[in-house]
Design a protein that fits this description.
alpha+beta; Glutaredoxin; two-stranded parallel sheet; 7 helices; 4 strands; globular
Length: about 140
């Protein structure tokens, strides 16, 4: 999330709206946005219909594996604040790009809790769409 926040001006310049989708209760989602300084819109999907439609799964081993544990250790060492587990810790996330016509351009359901495509890769795809070289 930090990398998305740091590059929000680039997403804006590429005429892109970043929307976060959470299955949490609205108050938890709002608090998370405030704690992470995320300047993005958030939709609440407590029934996880969007999660299911985009093929995101729940996985204990995808969440609690060595890579994820190492991520949290590094977070603690760096002095970042951890707010504990909120909601379902086994729900996997993902990243998706949908163009202005509603066409799914990128589908990236995460394999583990730390698995996300590089932000620069997302920006490159968006740049192609804006240049007219991508799918319109």
């Amino acid at each position: 999330m930090a990398q998305l926040c740091q590059r929000q001006h680039l997403f804006k310049r590429l005429n892109t709206e970043v929307v976060l989708i959470s299955f949490s209760e609205p108050e938890l989602g709002k608090r998370w946005l405030e704690e992470t300084c995320a300047p993005f819109a958030m939709l609440i999907d407590q029934e996880r219909k969007v999660y299911q439609a985009y093929g995101m799964k729940r996985s204990f081993f995808g969440t609690w594996n060595p890579d994820t544990i190492l991520f949290y250790i590094r977070m603690f060492i760096a002095g970042r604040k951890w707010h504990g587990i909120q909601g379902d810790p086994n729900q996997m996330g993902g990243d998706f790009i949908i163009d202005k016509n509603g066409t799914l351009i990128l589908s990236y359901p995460s394999e583990d809790a730390t698995d996300r495509p590089p932000v620069q890769g997302l920006l490159d795809i968006l740049q192609e769409l804006n240049d007219g070289t991508g799918n319109e």
